[in-house]
Amino acid sequence: MTLFEAILLTVITASTPLLIAAIGELVVERSGVLNLGVEGMMIMGAAVGIAAAITTGSSAFGVLAAVLAGMAMAALFALLTLGLATNQVAAGLALAIFGLGLSGVVGAPFVGVQREGIGQVAIPYLSDIPFLGPVLFAQDPFVYAAFALVAGVSWFLFRTRAGLVLRACGENHASAHALGHHVLRVRFLAVLFGGACAGLAGAYLSLVYTPFWTSGMTAGRGWIALAIVVFASWLPWRAAVGAYLFGGATILQLHAQSAGVPLPTQLLAAMPYLITILVLVLIMRLRRGGVAGPQSLGQPFVPDR
Amino acid sequence: MSTPLLDATGLVKRFGALVANDHVDLRVMPGEAHALLGENGAGKSTLVKMLYGLLQPDAGHIAWEGRPVHLPEPRAARRLGIGMVFQHFSLFDNLTVAENVALALDAAEPVPRIAARLAEVSRAYGLPLEPGREVWRLSVGERQRIEIVRCLMQDPRLLILDEPTSVLTPQESEGLFVTLDRIRAEGRAVLYISHKLEEVRRLCETATILRHGRVVARTDPRAETAGSLARMMVGSEVAALRHAAAPPEGPVRLSVRGLSVAAEDPHGVGLKDISLDLRRGEVLGIAGVAGNGQEALFAALSGEVLAPRAEQILLDGDAVGRADINARRRKGAAFVPEERLGHAAAPRLALSDNALVSGHAASGMVRHGMLDRGRMLGWVDAVTQAFDVRKGPRDPEARALSGGNLQKFVVGREVLRKPGLLVVSQPTWGVDAGAAGLIRLALLDLAREGSAVLVISQDLDELLEMADRIAVLFHGRLSPAEPVAGLTREAIGLRMGGAA
Fold first, then answer.
1. Under 8 Å between Cβ of B389 and B404
2. Residue B16 near chain A (CB below 8 Å)
3. N or C: which end of chain B has fewer CB within 10 A?
4. What does the pLDDT look like over B195-251, one tens digit per residue?
5. Are residues B51 and B155 in the same domain?
6. Which residues does chain A have within 8 Å of residue B103's beta carbon, measured at their own beta carbons?
């Protein structure tokens, strides 16, 4: 395995949780809900995931528990913002903080417990292709799942009627309601899906990426996922590009550090975040005159009856 | 006598203390063109929303072809054969025409097949549409076509149209009437909601008239005059205005030269090379269908958006194009924006605070940085008295006032300052006839006293009644202003559609 291959492999593992969380949030925002609590749902997924995996000894069960934990957090958010029509920004921030705190409690008994991570699944024959094989076809199941999610969400949003209704709820909830679509139901399901994805991304962190629990281990990835959705202008395949851009920047700065680039390590470590901000600013400048996201994004909807 | 297609009896709908519909009966026969007439706020939209399943009645029954029905949601109404064209379009700007249609159909159908059917229906009814275009690229008339076509694709027995011509040019309206005649010739019934009496007399053979949520008359509009219908709607004589025959010849107060402003919002319309002159004592009307740059024009004149160069806007000969709204107020200008709640007035602030919001620069309510509450309240009292603003407490929150009363307040707040220039956008939008008459009279009086008044309005009748000269705004360009005496509705209508 060459150094280049090794770098590519680490880029993929760094990018996958971002991609999974971003694709979930993308669906949520397409339905018109802004859930800023991705970080909280993700870290709850990480904590509950490893807790369940250690307790039961089954990684599959851990993943399932992580997904359910993310959905439970999302359901709480939905109760506040859809059921009670509270401010989505405030509720999302509260969810992020709440998740960080609660995950510390859930994860406390498991601090320092090491376990075997979920291994890679090599696809027969394809993984034997030189260079491309190990990079593309000998990954852990989450990497395949991430791309299946991107393809599935893209197909769902732009090829199915349910996806059309979901986009309509995000564009103009009053009109969608007037046509008889159940805006709150659609948004509830979207928020749950977003929670499931965030939980899955969290499980990736604690069961694959670094297979043990430390509090705060999401390290701001939930916030980056939010930025990726905007970067992607709410298009699934662009979200994949964004996730890999950020994941790539993260890994490259690590290699730059070890290669002894004459810059303070703190500055290098901040690079991915700086790049994200820079790219977002550039995109906002370039897109003047274009479409600026779902038009009902972040607005609470209360049907009048 | 045959069975009525739709028979609603004793419908009641309350919103809090307001009874929007008070035991309303409505009967539509098969194939009939039935008008639902009434002032703004008479309860027409509430009634049809109940018939379409969007609102649930608090009491009363709805029967369809003699059988009682329950309409929990629009889908149920559509299944019976009720289609609805909304007043404020229920369209999605960023989706294509075909996607918009697909959203209104109950059966899942691939979008390409819908596009094919759409092309077929739109050809059959003479309503040309391109299925693949995004809605925000279309004109208002084209948008309404989408609404109508997507109703027709469901083969409705009853088509409800909620004020369909309020956003159309006279020519576009004429096209709509031709389509409606064709729809009726196929035996479909039409329930036509409007407050435009001539249209109703042309189209409908039955009319139900609502006032304050109650049915006050059922009549054949063809046997009535526009005047007698208006009396039934309003309940009293409507005051008619007279304006002076010859346009005033005072000195120019406001002058705009070659003003171009880019649109703020990506789907909005900016201004292109606008020039106009407004004299003392004159009322200048700016006609045009909504969304042709009215917002940008108001923003540029008021100073909410600055002009590229100062000398593009002259107020009494001084270049004010780069001056902000307060600087313009200090020079004697006043502004009343279109949106009364949220733009002209802050909903949760008391009226006295709202008086301060526009008056702080020029009416002495602030002294040495401190508020003079007595003066603010005195101002509220003065406006209340002069404009007959009806309210409960002396100084309520702005949102507690009804639309008409709040509009009287925000117009009165500026008019009482006797500004040298008043720019007002949609002064009587959504306001009942009594309040509208009062506001128009106040604006005319202001002009007669020597102020210059610029009225931006979509209501052509209002402009013809008030203005000395009228210019038309289309796609951000302003036609030369011409004296009203030499203008016909048709000529203005053509310009509103960009044809001349």
1. no
2. no
3. N
4. 777 788 888 999 999 888 889 889 898 888 877 887 787 765 544 555 555 666 788
5. yes
6. 164-165, 168, 176, 179, 181
The verdict on A305 touching B (C-beta cutoff 8 Å) is: yes
* Domain ranges, residue B68: 6-234
Instruction: Check: CB of residue A246 under 8 Å from CB of residue A222.
Output: no
Cβ contact, residue pair A164, B53, below 8 Å: no
Query: What SS3 state is found at B307?
Result: coil
Measured CA to CA, the distance from residue A162 to residue B103 in angstroms comes to 10
**Window A:142-161, CB contacts with B under 8 Å:** 161
Which residue in B499, B493, B336 sits closest to B422, CA to CA?
B336
Q: Is A285 on the interface with B (CB under 8 A)?
A: no
B474 shares a domain with B330: yes
User: Which residues, including other chains, have CB under 8 Å from residue A250's CB and lie 6 or more apart?
Assistant: A14, A272
Q: Do B95 and A164 touch (CB under 8 A)?
A: yes
Q: What is the DSSP letter of B224?
A: S
The residue of chain A nearest to residue B57, with distances taken between CA atoms, is A305
- Phi, psi (5° rounding) for residue B132? -85, -5
Q: What is the ipTM of this complex?
A: 0.79
Looking at the domain assignment, is residue B18 inside a domain?
A: yes
| Contact at CB, B92 and A178, closer than 8 angstroms | no
B chain contacts of residue A172, beta-carbon cutoff 8 Å: 90-93
Size of chain B, expressed as the number of residues it contains:
500
| Final residue of a structural domain among B199, B234, B269 | B234
- What DSSP state is assigned to residue B221? G
Closest by Cβ to B75, choosing from A167, A180, A288: A180
A139: helix, coil or strand? strand
Residue A180 at interface with chain B, using a CB cutoff of 8 Å = yes
Angle at B427 between CA B448 and CA B346, to 5 degrees: 120
Which chain A residues contact residue B111 at CB under 8 A?
164
Q: Is residue B34 domain-shared with residue B61, that is, in the same domain?
A: yes
Is residue B177 located within the same domain as residue B287?
A: no
Q: Write the CATH number for B67.
A: 3.40.50.300
Domain count, chain B: 2
The predicted-structure confidence for B330-365, as pLDDT tens digits, reads as follows 899 999 998 888 888 888 889 988 888 887 766 778
Q: Would residue B352 count as lying in a domain? A: yes
Of A30-44, A106-120, B329-343, where does the model show the most confidence? A30-44
Domain boundaries, chain A: 16-115+133-222
CB-closest option in B54, B73, B99 to A164: B99
Question: Residue B73 is nearest to which of A171, A180, A295, comparing CB atoms?
Answer: A180
Residue B245, in any domain of the structure? no
Question: Which of A174, A179, A304 lies nearest to residue B103, judging by beta carbons?
Answer: A179
CA angle B119-B123-B124, nearest 5°? 120
Select from A171, A176, A177 the Cβ nearest to the Cβ of B94.
A171
A275–chain B Cβ distance below 8 A for any pair: no
Residue B291 region by backbone torsions, left for phi larger than 0, else alpha for psi between -120 and 50, else beta = left
Q: Which of A225, A162, A218 is nearest to A29 (CA)?
A: A225
What's the CA gap between A88 and A173, in Å, rounded?
15
Q: Kindly give the residue spans of alpha helices, DSSP state H, lying in A1-58.
A: 3-30, 38-56
Shared domain for B189 and B283, answered yes or no, is no
